[in-house]
Amino acid sequence: MSINIDLIHFLVVAAFSFLVGLEVKSYRKEFVKSKHQNYFFGDIRTFSFIGILGFILFKIDVMHYSLYMAGFLGITLLFAILYHKNLEDNKRSILLFIVMILVYTFGALIQTQPLWMTALVYVSIVFILNSTKPLNKIFVEFNITEFETLGKMVLLSVVILPLLPDTKSIPYIPLSPFKIWLAVVVISGISYGGYILQKYFFPSKGYFLTGIFGGSYSSTATTVVLARKAKQIGGLNVIDAAIISATSVMYLRLVVVALIFNLHIGERLILPFIGLSLIGFIISSFYLKNQTTTQEHVDIADTNPLELKTAFLFAFLFVAMIVLTHFVTQKYGTSGLEILSFVVGFTDIDPFILSILTGKLSVSSTQIITAIMIAAGSNNILKAIYALWFGGVKNTYKSAIWISILGILTIVISLTYEQLM
Predict the structure, then answer these.
(1) Which helix H or strand E contains 181, and what residues bound it?
(2) Is 284:246 a contact under the CB 8 Å cutoff?
(3) What are the φ/ψ torsions at residue 63 (nearest 5 degrees)?
(4) How far is C-alpha 304 from the chain's CA centre?
(5) How many CB atoms lie within 10 A of CB 46?
(6) C-beta atoms surrounding 51 within 10 Å
């Protein structure tokens, strides 16, 4: 015997409406200090009945939904009367009215959309009502230019990107303008996520977490900043652990990038790169056990990776790397690509890696994997040099040695990849 689907829908709506009412009561108790500070109708029972009312009115008039709309207008009119009273007391918030309207839509959502949609709306309401204090804290600290930069990138991504031609129209470049800019947007988005996490969500969680989140943004920049800090305060085991962890995160970041742009290559990089990342984390954990301090704040970078000049520079380097890589592979073959990979490792490796993942080169997938690993390995050697240069040999020699070993190991694995795999 199966349970009637309408009964299930009704029980879900009633339960979600009741729980939202509980959240509203908790919200008003915390943020409305006086009963007369703000006028609003209802808490738990009112929200429960609003949800049930929306379900019933939508159910009994499935042709024109006139009763459902009448219910919506009635709730709105009632709130308008109360809102007029609130304005006299200089109270302008319509937050709880919006929540009530969302509860009213539960009945329509559950009868016309999959269950997950109603559940998602419910979870969103609860999350937002409970995040007032954390969000306020973040927005107080958030630089307004971050919003402006994000807005510009959204404009270029959502509005401009669809207008770009998706045909190969640039000589000597096997990608369309659409795919070139899409690659820039994706890489910038990944870097932006690490940048925001490090700068706003985990700004004061100590050196080790700084290394982890900074590594997701730029392991090279993270290494330089941590090395400078080591020179200021002297060598600390926790800073060595942070530098090594930043490089460990770099391997994971490259796997994600490869999976996005070339699934086949990304899948074949999972085993060696996750293995190298685990080795790095194990090494850093030994130094972390002997830490003396972890709570000082370290700023990794002041440059937002979504800034237009950064994005355009990346796009230029990406296109230049595509042209250079095609030239090298056609003229010098596999050995030329391997040499180029090693040399590029001493610069920003993202444009190069993107170029070989998307450039449709006349080389095998194994040779592409080898090139990526060589670039990652030589980039580790560059970071070791940076650590010694900016931190001083006495302060950062331990982390420099280990990331050099990881770099050499990466190159060795790359050159024997075909035999190992």
Answers:
(1) helix 177-196
(2) no
(3) -85, -50
(4) 14
(5) 16
(6) 29
Torsion angle of C-alpha atoms 369, 371, 376, 378, degrees rounded to 10? 150
Q: What does the CA dihedral 244, 249, 251, 254 come to, rounded to 10 degrees?
A: -140
> Which residue in this structure is represented by tokens 């090279």?
220
Collect all residues with Cβ–Cβ distance below 8 Å to 195 and sequence separation of at least 6. Answer: 217, 300, 301, 304, 305
Can you give the residue ranges of every domain in the chain? 5-130, 143-420
DSSP 93: -
Q: Residues of 174-192 as b/e, b for ≥16 C-beta within 10 angstroms? A: ebbbbbbbbbbbbbbebbb
211 contacts 245 by C-beta, under 8 angstroms: yes
Distance CA 271, CA 266 (A): 10
pLDDT of residue 141: 54
Residue 172 gets the label, from left (phi > 0), alpha (psi -120 to 50) or beta, of: left
Measuring CA to CA, how many Å separate 352 from each of 140, 237, 317, 342? Answer: 38, 33, 8, 11
Compute and round to an integer the Cα radius of gyration of the chain: 28
Q: What is the pLDDT of residues 36-76, one digit of tens each?
A: 455 566 778 888 898 999 999 998 877 778 888 998 898 88
**Cβ atoms of 277 and 253 closer than 8 Å:** no
Closest by CA to 322, choosing from 156, 179, 157, is 179
Measured CA to CA, the distance from residue 77 to residue 61 in angstroms comes to 21
What letter represents residue 315's amino acid?
A
* Percent above pLDDT 90 for the chain: 15
Q: Region 400-415: what's the mean pLDDT?
A: 92
Using the predicted structure, report yes or no on whether residue 174 has a pLDDT greater than 60.
Answer: yes
User: Does 59 or 129 have the greater pLDDT score?
Assistant: 59
